[in-house]
Every structure is written in structure tokens, then in C-alpha cells.
Amino acid sequence: xxxxxGIANFSDKVLVDxxxxxAREGAAHLSATRHDGDTEELFKVLQVSTCAFxxxxxxxxxIANSVAPLATIWMVFSTGRVASEAAVPVWLLVYGxxxxxxxxTCYGHKILRTLGNKLTLHTPSxxxxxxxxxxxxxxxxxxxxxxxxxxHCKCGSATAVxxxxxxxxxxxxxxxTIAFGWILTVPMAGLTSGLTFFLLSSGPxxxxxxxxxxxxx
Length: 217
Hints:
Shape: elongated
Low-confidence stretches: 5-18
Distance between the termini: 66 Å
Helix content: over 70%
Number of helices: 6
Largest sheet: none
């Protein structure tokens, strides 16, 4: 009986949280300005071009961010030396693009749902502006050789487009959650990678004479 009561209380709490979140999304959507239907139909065509160029910007920065460490590892493994610059084989870029597509297929729908429905109202005209702003920002920083996050740029663009019609057009609780995630991910990724490297570097090393390869010490 106590277990059933606990399950019921938990279900009620989840239902209340979901309902409150839906209410915040609905309020942001209802307060947003809607434009003429013919205008939105025109922007459907225009947004195709901005989506294509946004994908180009995404590949120019995010795939480079992912492949760069792997290219360094491959250079050391294949040449046995360390240099300030590493040649990036085409197959490494294809490898990174394939795994990025796999990640999009498996978990991308969660981010799409968050940015597409929960943050602010999205229409073709708004989406055109969001893609254009994020694309220009990413391409400028890519040209300058500065690694940035396309997702962060899209979040900033979507929030700014929502703000253009008033503060009530934005789901500020979700904005706070996203900002907290940005702050949390940097030390979390650093701690995880640093701990992993420490454990690997503290293990047995293939040095001559230590028996790692089965030779006599």
C-alpha cells in the first residue's frame, strides 16, 4: 500500500510538472505576434536556403571541433611524431560526419523538440531569421579559427527573435536551464576527460624491457 501511494504521488508530481511546462510554452506561443499567412508561405521557401547554409556552417565548425582531436591522435599513431599541424584525411571528415548523423538520429529529436517548440514560437519567418543569425555568427568565427557551438548560437538567435515581440514570448525557465547546462558542461567534460587520461596514463606503458610486449624485463 505504501509503495502504491509513493508511485501515485510521484505520478501526480510528474503530471503537475508537465502541465506547468506546457502552460509556460502555451503562454509564450499565445503572446507571440503572428504574421500574414501568405508571408509565412513565402518564408517557407526562403528558409530552405538558410537551413542549407546553416548546415554548411555547422559542418565548418562543429565537425572540425570533433575531428581535430582525432586527427591529432591519428597523426601520432601513423607517423610516430608530434607536430604543430596535422593533415586531416578525407576519411576522418567522413567518419565524423557519419557519427554526427547517427547522433542526430538517436538523440537529436530531443534537442529539436526543445528548440523547435518549447523555447518560443517558431514560424517560417522566425526560423529564417534564427538560421540566418546563427549561420552568420558561426561562419564569422569559423573564418577566424575560433571553435564555438552552433547549438549555443541557435539558442541565442531563437531567444532574441522571441524577445523582439516582448519578454513574454520566451520561456525563461527553459532559457535558465539551457544556460545552466552551458556552465555545467565545461567543468564536467574537463573532469571526465582529465580523469580518463589520468587512469590511462597511470596504467602499464609499452616501454622497452618492462615486459609489456612479453619480452624479458
